[in-house]
Amino acid sequence: MSKILRGLRGATTAAANTSEAILEAAGELLSALQTANGFAPEDVESAIFTSSPDLTADYPARAARRLGWTEVPLLGATEVAVPPPGGLPRCIRVLLHFYTAKPQRALKHMYLREAAKLRPDR
User: Fold this and answer.
1) Residues 33-77: pLDDT tens digits?
2) Left if phi > 0, otherwise alpha if psi is -120 to 50, otherwise beta: which for 113?
3) Highest CATH level, class, for 4-117
4) Predicted confidence (pLDDT) per residue in 72-100, tens digit
5) How do the domains of the chain map onto residue ranges?
6) DSSP readout, 85-111?
7) Is the pTM of this model over 0.90?
8) Which of 22, 34, 36 is nearest to 93 (CA)?
């Protein structure tokens, strides 16, 4: 079965605006996505990270490098500053583009920690 390019979403929250908290949360999210969907770093075409405006201590994309995603093009941006209750403080989101033989409906998008509120259906 041949692989095709798919999009995969995930989000989580950092415990604080510190480098350690941001990298730990982002790394946990990426590891969960990778385990749940069975892909290797070489399957990832690109990754786009966003973080809420209150996260400024580090780039969530650095967590991908720590996991060995050294050849993957990574991009970071700031989310729109939507105040609560619509916005979620200390939120990290990711959109991965990766090659897989799985159909879209079989992918497991992950919403961890406080970000579970964003997609209770997942």
Assistant:
1) 999 999 999 999 999 999 999 999 999 999 999 999 999 999 999
2) left
3) alpha beta
4) 999 999 999 988 778 899 999 999 999 99
5) 4-117
6) TTS-TTEEEEEEEEEESS-GGG---EE
7) yes
8) 22
